Amino acid sequence: MAKTSSVEKNNRRRKLVDQYAAKRKALKEIVMDQSKPMDERFRAQLKLSALPRNSAKIRIRNRCEVTGRPRAFYRKLKLSRVALRDLGNTGQIPGLVKSSW
């Protein structure tokens, strides 16, 4: 089990990303638009950098929904390999069979 503080910090980041998504997208479009004047693009870049760092989507860490483990994460299932194996062995994931020979 991961530290609760780490999981909560990641959840706060997710909230900030959702809150600032539209504003960040609008500012990034201005910054990337080559037809706009340089000073307008520069002002947009300054506004973008004034936003909270944790509002950037890149700051979110993929974590297991069950254990909060940050490594060996399967995106499709939102589980770590450890949780996937445990749930698979107990038969809680349909279609997943533990191989044995």
Automatic annotation (TrEMBL):
Database matches in InterPro entries: Ribosomal_uS14, Ribosomal_uS14_bac/plastid, Ribosomal_uS14_CS
Similarity comment: family membership: Belongs to the universal ribosomal protein uS14 family.
Role summary: Binds 16S rRNA, required for the assembly of 30S particles and may also be responsible for determining the conformation of the 16S rRNA at the A site.
Protein name: Small ribosomal subunit protein uS14
Subunit: Part of the 30S ribosomal subunit. Contacts proteins S3 and S10.
One of the Pfam families matching this protein, by short name: Ribosomal_S14
PANTHER family: 30S RIBOSOMAL PROTEIN S14 (PTHR19836), SMALL RIBOSOMAL SUBUNIT PROTEIN US14M (PTHR19836:SF19)
GO cellular component, one term: ribosome
Keyword list, A-Z: Ribonucleoprotein, Ribosomal protein, RNA-binding, rRNA-binding
